[in-house]
Design brief:
five-stranded mixed beta barrel; 4 domains; OB fold (Dihydrolipoamide Acetyltransferase, E2P); alpha+beta; about 30% helix; 9 helices; six-stranded mixed sheet; single chain; about 325 residues
């Protein structure tokens, strides 16, 4: 690693920017910012009230889409203008994405912080390897992290987790062999690490094996507290082995991002691979039909790839 201790690895990719906080050669936190997200957290802009929903709530329209406002200024009427700040991005969901959320504000209009801006704000060192340099992100386990997000299978010492995003909450199911008490404690540490690594917020449910005894259940809850950085709230482990965690949710998690558009995720991954292909390598590449179609639909991505690499790749559908 270029720096001792925790360091951000950052890539300004094609179609998305990506970052990973790496500590002891392992990814402890990952971030993806797609270029098709128009309303990002921190964006301040003028908007128009499209519909008053009652209780001080409303639906607004602004450049980039629509959003919901929870606390409208008193006396504002439909069609009126106001300034808002995006506090939660749109969230992918089966059928139709949840709209972004905004708050009325007196701040002057401004663009949202970029992913790089957010990394700078942490105060931690940032390393941005170039495409021709060793792939530090991959060496830290980037592909394995994406596989976890897509499959939901997360292996840890003593057992495995099954991660399942649902409209109501993100669920973790714990699987492993007896004895159950050490399995549950190890699983609690693994769940906390996975929540941070994949950027999971909102309501999270964990289904542990049924644990007999209050002391043993308290040990599982204490493992969550010791491993998951705040802020969060949680319940105790109930008699059926279920624990619920609530975390702030300003953006979609890595699993939500990838599962909402697996073809887009595969296309961006292909671009990352192509950008790292040596110029002397063969230029003809066969891609899955859906991935090829997505890339052909984004000539801007392909133009950026050609500009960065100095090579025009011959992409074929298979």
């Amino acid at each position: 690693m270029p720096e001792p201790g925790p360091v951000w690895l950052y890539e300004a990719g094609i179609g998305e920017d990506r970052a990973a906080l790496v500590e002891n050669d392992q990814i402890v936190e990952a971030l993806i910012e797609r270029d098709d997200v128009a309303l990002r957290v921190g964006h301040v802009a003028r908007a128009r009230l499209v519909e008053a929903l009652g209780g001080g709530r409303g639906r607004i329209a602004l450049d980039g889409g629509e959003a919901l406002v929870s606390h409208l200024p008193p006396g504002i009427t439909q069609g009126a203008s106001l300034t808002v700040e995006i506090v939660r991005e749109a969230l992918p969901e089966a059928g139709r994405a949840k709209l972004a959320k905004a708050n009325a504000t007196d701040r002057p209009p401004c663009a949202a912080p970029t992913l790089y801006d957010r990394l700078v704000a942490t105060g931690l060192p940032i390393h941005a390897p170039r495409a021709h340099e060793p792939d530090a992100l991959e060496a830290a386990g980037w592909s394995e992290l994406l596989d976890e997000a897509m499959s939901g299978e997360i292996v840890f010492p003593l057992g495995a987790l099954r991660l399942s995003p649902t409209p109501a909450m993100t669920l973790f199911d714990v699987d492993g062999a007896p004895p159950l008490d050490p399995l549950a404690v190890a699983a609690a540490h693994a769940v906390a690490r996975a929540i941070r690594r994949h950027g999971i917020g909102g309501s999270i449910g964990v289904d542990f094996p049924t644990i007999a005894g209050k002391a043993q259940r308290n040990a599982v809850a204490a493992a969550i507290d010791a491993t998951l950085p705040p802020p969060f709230e949680r319940t105790a482990v109930n008699g059926f082995g279920f624990l619920q965690i609530i975390r702030p949710r300003a953006r979609a998690s890595i699993p939500e991002i990838l599962r909402a558009d697996p073809v887009g995720a595969a296309a961006r991954a292909a671009l990352r691979t192509l950008e790292r292909t040596p110029p002397t390598a063969p230029r003809r590449h066969a891609l899955p039909a859906a991935v090829h179609a997505r890339l052909m639909a984004h000539p801007d991505w392909l133009a950026t790839l050609a500009r960065r690499t100095g090579v025009v790749h011959d992409l074929e559908s298979r």
